[in-house]
Amino acid sequence: MAAVIQAQGLGKRYGRRWALTDCTLDIPAGRVVGLVGPNGAGKTTLLHLTVGLLAPTSGSVRVLGGRPAANPAQLAKVGFVAQDSPTYAGLRVADHLKLGARLNPGWDAALARGRIGRLGLDPVRKAGKLSGGQRAQLALTLGIAKRPELLILDEPVAALDPLARREFLQGLMEAAAEHELSVMLSSHLVSDLERACDYLIVLVDSRVRVAGAVEGLLATHHRLTGARRDPTRLPADQHVVAASHTDRQTILLIRTVGPVHDPAWAVHDVGLEQLVLAYMRHPETTALGRPTLAAVPPDATEVSL
Amino acid sequence: MTWVAWRQQRPSTVAAIALLAVAGPILLVSGWQMTSFARDSGLAACVASGGDCQLLAEAFGNRYRSLLEPVWLLGALLPVALGLLFGGPLLAREFEQGTHRLAWTQSVTRSRWLGARLALAAGVLVVVSAVAALLLTWWYGRFDQLGISGRAALERGSLVPVATAVLAFSIATAAGALTRRVVPALAAGLVAVLVVGLALNLAAQQWLPPRPLTITYPAGSPSPRAGLGDQVLSSGYRDRTGRDLSAQVLDRLCPGTAGQAVDRCLAANGIQRVDRYQPASRAWQLGLAQSALYLVVGALFLVLAWWRTLRPD
User: Fold this and answer.
1) Smallest Cα distance from A53 to chain B, Å
2) Where in the sequence is the domain holding A234, given as residue range(s)?
3) Same domain, yes or no, for A15 and A152?
4) Which of A139, B3, B65, B167 would staple B298 via disulfide (CB 3.0–4.6 Å)?
5) B76 closest CA partner among B160, B189, B184
């Protein structure tokens, strides 16, 4: 399938600080993409570049084949719900729907009204009087009823309590399935994305550490445990993401395409959260090249994998 | 987009109308009272007949002169206040509440969004400030037609307050685009409007046509143009040879403060007084020139706001 987002060496600099560096992505259509990384990793920058709120300092990004926000047609194809779900505090819920209708040629009024009704949002209530969860839902409704091909959400559930998070993501998944949307959402919590996403991008310190379909990531990452040894002497196709050692044992998280034959290792599957955390904790390793292990001396204290 | 722009302009429009709803009746009622007092006291008839109405005019002045200063202040501040009210929050509130990210990711380009917002806000502002200007002009007219205040004639018609409002609007909008916060935008906008307004007035006086006229007459005697409502910009003294005299020289020549003795001394020495002035009849031309200057400078500030807002970060 065609790519929804194609980034080539994309970078963004604020003053002297690079918020995003050398980001290359090729995300196929029809995915629910999770963008995960610690606060300040560059997630919002990447999303804003994708919707055209920011212009790149270097490289380029194409979304659904076009330059972000280049023209009304391009804008119509991409829905965006910004961080903290901004809405006009002084405008009523109904005004927001009218705003959506006036500003978007593909507006689905029935869909918007239906969602607002199901969510129990009072149309005459001002957005400023809504709870955080209700505001998030209103912003999501605006994004969905625009009928975009790609919906991008920046930390959509950050302000919600656990129950509301679950409901919000549930609603998002249903809408994505129903309208054949591609979705990209960011979070600093893997647990938010684990249920919802089938494609994952891990962003740490302004760099993409790993990106790929969740299934593929889980199939190519393994946890190895065995007698203590030097992890640099692994076969060339096995890349160490994280290593930890006790006096007698070595535990590795590796990425490899092929099977692990060495009988000295016990091979375990990895969970998505474990995998993401390993990349976040060891930002010096990337899935793009041979990892450097200088930061992990042989007698490092145990790192839970 | 028009509906969206209007819906977002509604609160400040309502506030502006409320402002007019307070100021309007005060002006109307006091204006009517002045008219009826002038009629009932016989002042109006006296002025119309061209007679000596000094006593009647004094009675009128004693009664209503105290209103002149507050109304003049209102006339000066109202356009600025309206401009700040419309311009300050226009962009700053969007940035402050993050709603620009909502607005700019709908299916409307940023330039069209901004164009519609600016055009609608400026349009409503022009209408509202024109109403305020007409009210004020009418009020000054009550004074002016009695030949009591030269100020009304020099208020330069209804155009200047509208241009002032547009200038304040443009400056506040630019301040909002730069500071991205409402309160700083309003504060910076107010200071900038005062500074820019003052600078423009000085510049207009220095360079803008029509140039001031000069009249020379013997010092110590009244100006031949007294009572014509001229705006005297500056005065100076010259001796018989046409040399300008400084205040110190004059003081040495004819010591003492103003008075008949000094006047006589000046006349005896053949000192001439020189006034640079704008005749009251030019009020409309001056107003036009000043308004044009305000609008041109306002446009520059709007270009700045436009450039800052449309340039992706």
Assistant:
1) 6
2) 219-281
3) yes
4) B167
5) B160
Spatial contact of B231 and B268, defined as CB atoms under 8 Å apart: no
Model confidence band, residue B242 (pLDDT cutoffs 50, 70, 90) = confident
Of the candidates A144, A171, A205, which is a domain's last residue? A205
Structure tokens at B145: 């037609």
- Strand pairing report for A150-153 and A182-187: parallel
Residue B138: predicted pLDDT: 85
Per the structure, the count of domains in chain A is: 2
pLDDT tens digits, residue range B15-60? 999 999 998 998 899 889 888 888 888 888 887 787 777 888 888 8
Q: What number is the ipTM of this complex?
A: 0.86
Band of the pLDDT at A285, cuts 50, 70, 90?
A: low
Q: Is A55 in contact with B313 (Cβ distance < 8 A)?
A: yes
CB proximity under 8 Å: A 105-164 to B: 105-106, 139, 142, 146
Q: What pLDDT, on the 0 to 100 scale, is given for residue A289? A: 40
**How far is Cα B154 from Cα B209, in angstroms, rounded to an integer?**
16
CA distance B212 to B275: 10
> Dihedral (C-alpha) B292, B295, B297, B300: value to the nearest 10 degrees?
-140
Please check whether residues A112 and A22 belong to one and the same domain: yes
Q: What is the CATH number of the domain that holds A160?
A: 3.40.50.300
Confidence class for position B156, pLDDT limits 50, 70, 90: low
**Cα separation of B140 and B155, whole Å?**
8
A window 70-89, beta carbon within 8 A of B: 71-73, 75-76, 78-80, 82-84, 86-89
